[in-house]
Design brief:
Layout lengths: L4 E7 L4 H10 L2 E8 L2 E9 H7 L10 E5 L2 E12 L6 E8 L6 E10 L5 H4 L3 E4 L3 E6 L8 E4 L8 E3 L10 E2 L8 E6 L6 H8 L10
Parallel strand pairs: 1-4, 2-6, 7-10
Antiparallel strand pairs: 1-3, 2-3, 4-5, 5-6, 7-9, 8-13, 9-12, 11-13
Amino acid sequence: MSEIFEVVAQPRTDGGKGASRRLRRQGLVPGIVYGGHRDPQMVSVLHSELYRQLDYEAFYSSILNLKLDGETTQVVLKDLQRHPAKPFIIHVDFQRISAKDKLRMSVPLHFEHEATAVGVKKGGVVSHNLTELEISCLPKDLPEYIAVDMAAMEIGDVLQVSDLKLPAGVELTAAMDADTPVVSIHAAYGGSAEEEGAEGEGESGEAPAE
């Protein structure tokens, strides 16, 4: 189970763009809490505190303790809207969770042993096709990330979604195609110095005359 973070929120009653702009001028981020078989509730959170927590990768795929009106509710971060040009959070969505209901979440991929993979040591170049995976699981089984072991990958090898080892209780959603490539190692463009020399030589082992 992932680390548990704490988010302090305040209820709000005014909706609309004008109210949201006023909140932002006060250093607050408008948001909403929904799910858990309860009505949605509009909230606001302190921008500086939320922005600080977003520095932690685990915050995006962990269970959060949302403190609101003297109660603590467990939620997950479901959506985050950022300003297109400035380092500001415009809106945030939280989803309440239930121990009995499965979550649908996107969790990051951690590429382990990438620098020491067999193919990389031979001069191969790594290409990442996916950086996160959409999964379904109960809250108690929510992983902070999915590990991708690259140690044995050779040049030419490709790991697909179906090759990944998922933690117990975790399954892929229908949106994830099992044949989708996740990461590959290919030869460096132009080939190695040895390969270039071999291609430029004739049968006699000498470079052909012009």
